[in-house]
Amino acid sequence: MTHSLFPSVEQWPGVDPQWLHRLEVCSTAPVDSGQVRSWSYLDNLPTLEKNSLEPVGTILAVHGNPTWSYLWRDILQTGALPENRWRVIAVDQLDMGYSERTGTVRRLEDRVQDLSDFTKTIGLDDTTQPVVTLAHDWGGLVSLGWALEHQNILSGILLTNTAVFHAEGSAIPAPLQVALTPGVHRWGTQKSTAFLDVTLSLAGQNRLSQQVRATYRSPYTSSSLREGIRNFVADIPATPQSPSYLMMQRIAEGIRHLHVPAFFQWGVQDPVFTRHYLADLMHRMPHADVHCYENSSHLVMEDQDVATPFFEWLHEHFVQEYTLRQQHVQRRAEHVHAESFVPMGAQLEQRREEKTLAVVDMHPKDSTRIARHYTWAELAQNVERVANGLEDLGVRPQSRVNLMIPPGALLTTCIYACLKIGAIVVVADTGLGTKGLTRALKGARPDYLIGIPQALVAAKTFGWPGFRISAEPLTGVMKKVLGVRATLADFTDTSVRPRPVRDAQEHAAVLYTSGSTGPAKGVLYTQQQLSAMRNAIMSTYHLHQNTGLVAGFAPFALLGPALGITSVTPTMDVTQPKTLTASALAHAVEAISAQTVFLSPAALMNVVRTSTSLGEQEKHALAQVRTVLSAGAPLNTSLLEAVHAILPHASIHTPYGMTEALPITDISYEQIQQANADALSKNVVGAGNGVCVGTPIAGAQVSIAPLDKNGIAGVEHHQDPGVTGEILVRAPHVKDRYDRLWIAENQSIATPGWHHTGDVGHLDEHGRLWVEGRLSHIMLSAQGILTPVAAEHAAEKIMGVRRAAVVPVGPAGCAQAVAVVETDPQTRKNGLASVKLTQKIRNRVFEETGINLCAVLAVKEHPTDIRHNSKIDRTLLAQWAKKVLSGEKAKILW
């Protein structure tokens, strides 16, 4: 029967009435061959023709169950825009939406043939223009089945949350298990609207409006009209006994040979089509571009603007001569001189016979004692042993290996073993917390996870992916409970196996950002880029074999062997840098006669705070340090002065960089003093307003993309002094790309050859870079565009202010600047600061920056990222400040 309940299209939000069409199609599907079936579909061709726009190509959009063509309304609208010009045909599959109710049970094979019948009848099979499929949910299998049969016209594949294969013996997602339960199936899918209601609730962050929800429900107002929903669920190929299982297998294997461009956008909070199904798709189509939305669910297109990225991607592949990625790689190669490639482990190989110290671990509870140490020969032998053991377990080049081991000799061993094999090391800082780690690891999808027992317990509890290997010996019972298949102690083969020299362009590591400005992003590095980072640090700071390195900053605890220098990890909780004491630092320095120290700003702050308890021997040890490096957040001059007093013979450097590229610029304490003097004298154009982080290191370049009146940076850039904008950088050691974040990657390479950092700053006439804050933290005020860092440092000069953050409150264009400070001693109550302190801070900030603070609030502690304990979450603070100033009862949310 034909669906007769056809409402007025004007009641469908986002749909142009002229898009709605019907088509009579003669079926050749096995279930009803020869029958003429009536299809309903949406087609934006009338809009294109009305505006005299010739389509670039056609998108064939296929919905799943229980949605219908209305799912693709934003794609239809966006495709019809003059800058896009794509015809979009969105079908209602038979028995679904407003297409005919056939009274048959249609299997996957029937639905693939149905779609072929439709495209032949509408004339799509004869087109000479690009044809791209787009699908969601079970429409993915249907559209890919069609794609395999139409490879002569297929040009590309677009997918949102879907699945193409379900392995025998594995459990299907819980919502589908419930829907398939015999006692529930008919009632939940047809007799009631339960299945439909649950689906419409899976919109992630955004609830569907009442009108949109009603539109989705409109084709399914009676039990008879919902029969197709029931049959679609019943046809899920959950087991080999399912009628459509063989057809699913054929499609899943077939797409391995589809080499057309592909792009997947995925809501990772989907309880049905989870990351597991995305990982399977990526395994079958490894060339596909991917973007994951961390806070979106099944109906990702209702929660995110997926249309704009899809059409940007289509434009790159079918309109432009090159994709943005290709342009970026070409421009980068033109401007960044390729260094000769020396693998990260080269120094370890050269020193493998030496009996001198390579790595030292201080005792985790007693900073005066050494827990363990390894000579270069012992370290090399351990690396060989672990590499051999991992290979025997199946680790291969480009396998992903997640390491959940604290910095120290054991982590160093595993890192270099993976690099030797050519495996990709996945490093997500435990400081992200269990929620952040779970998000990161499920995104990276490591094949193997090597962890200490605490990490393995968390892996079991939170479902972290990867073949589990214990870093420490375990009992048989514990191995079984934690799902551990092997331990590092099981590896005994120390023979030197022949292995090829690693390819410089192989991916070597996924390093996660701190997550201080949103969900942590995975940053992919090649072997070449890791070695270039090592070279940059070695040449900038003149490190050599006799230097000795104290690595109190977790990401750099692994540099020692790469640099060929002895390294030590001090007694501290590396997930909480502020736990490092002055005494612990002194004992770590003494243990290897270290001359170089690398610490985060938070660690330095605590070293200063605890320095009054230093004994004479400890002071003597610290006096031998010659270089101090600190990165992660800007350091104010008062902290640098205090550090200089503790480490009197050290040259203190505060390099600027990020997970994507470190270092980019460098500056010493003395140079900071000179820059600040220049700012006070105003004799240097561009001096002041922010924190001076120095000039680019050898091989690096910095440029500025000016901001428009709305605070948006363009792609044009220059090095003119005194102009505030987004900081752009390039160097041999800038990351390869973001992992499975196509949108973020394209934004970061919007200027091909350069990396858009998301930081705001300016250059002075001496070429020194001044960092003013994050692009996301600028204030669009009545005074114009304001940046926070200079104002924060001015506030921190007031006695009793330990740390300050300046945030906007109010609508863009007329926002007011508010300072939120930590006080010393700590404030007893979060809220308005005292009148006296407020006046002092307001006066100092206005005097130094010209910014009028509308209020000063005090908190016991700022919300910060956990890696550095120094990057303040200004977005969270701004939300809290707004509530306080509006009179609401505002609880601290961190």
Brief digest:
The chain is an alpha/beta fold and 894 residues long.
Q: Could you explain how this protein is built, in words?
A:
With 894 residues, the chain is of the alpha/beta class. The protein has four domains: 9-318, Alpha/Beta hydrolase fold, catalytic domain (Rossmann fold); 331-553, Rossmann fold (3-Layer(aba) Sandwich), CATH 3.40.50; 661-777, Luciferase, Domain 3 (Luciferase, domain 3), CATH 2.30.38; 780-885, ANL, C-terminal domain (GMP Synthetase, Chain A, domain 3, 2-Layer Sandwich). Strand 21, helix 26 (637-646) and strand 22 (651-653) form a beta-alpha-beta unit. The chain is globular and about 95 Å long. It starts with 19 loop residues before the first strand and ends in a 9-residue tail after the last helix.
Fold blueprint:
Layout lengths: L19 E7 L9 E8 L1 H6 L6 E6 L10 H7 L6 E6 L16 H15 L8 E7 L1 H11 L4 E9 L11 H7 L1 H10 L2 H7 L9 H8 L9 H8 L10 H10 L7 E6 L7 H10 L4 E5 L6 H4 L3 H12 L5 H12 L10 H5 L6 E6 L7 E6 H17 L7 E5 L4 H13 L2 E4 L5 H12 L3 E4 L1 H10 L4 E4 L5 H7 L1 E4 L19 E6 L9 E5 H15 L7 E3 L7 H5 L3 E3 L12 H11 L3 E4 L1 H9 L6 H7 L4 E4 L6 H10 L4 E3 L2 E3 L2 E6 L2 H13 L9 E6 L4 E6 L18 E6 L6 E2 L3 H7 L6 E9 L5 E6 L4 E3 L2 E3 L2 H7 L5 E9 L6 E8 L7 E2 L2 H15 L3 E7 L14 H12 L9
Parallel strand pairs: 3-4, 3-5, 5-6, 6-7, 7-8, 9-19, 11-12, 11-13, 12-16, 13-14, 14-15, 18-19, 18-20, 20-21, 21-22, 34-36
Antiparallel strand pairs: 1-2, 2-4, 9-10, 16-17, 17-28, 23-24, 24-25, 25-30, 26-27, 27-29, 29-30, 31-32, 33-34, 35-36
Helix pairs in contact: 3-4, 4-10, 6-9, 16-17, 23-25, 24-26, 29-30
